[in-house]
Write a structure and sequence with these properties.
By secondary structure, the protein is of the alpha+beta class. It is built from three helices and five strands; from the N terminus they run H-E-E-H-E-E-E-H.
Length: about 120
């Protein structure tokens, strides 16, 4: 296991989807979980790019994928990718039946054209 600074393993995830998209009525492509406070935000391909926005506003540099079957961590401050790290408080990912992109009912039909490269 890799030692990564800026991780609080006991922090609970803020929910099963992007907290900011939920508040705004938006949608996401993939989800990332702040490893320090548990904030769930959407990836940089998503329209809102809320995981990066969370890092910029909070200073919490490390996020873990919140996608089923993915364990990697990303350090926004350094650009380092860690293939694994400490286990975080469950759940480790969004519900398996939650669609990607999500959430159900809010994803526009032309979602692929709306993703950031």
């Amino acid at each position: 296991m890799t030692e990564i600074e800026g991780i609080e393993p006991t922090a609970q995830p803020s929910g099963t989807g992007c907290a900011d998209c939920e508040a705004e009525g938006g949608w996401w492509f993939h989800l990332r979980r702040c490893a320090q406070c548990g904030h769930v935000g959407c990836c940089d391909s998503s329209p809102g790019q809320h995981a990066t926005n969370h890092w910029m506003s909070s200073g919490h540099p490390v996020a873990q994928s919140f996608e089923p079957g993915e364990e990697w961590y990303w350090n926004f401050a350094t650009g380092d990718l860690y293939e694994s790290g400490p286990d975080l408080a469950p759940p480790a990912d969004h519900p398996i039946d939650q669609p990607v992109p999500g959430p159900s009912g809010r994803v526009p039909q032309n979602w692929q054209q709306l993703l950031h490269p």
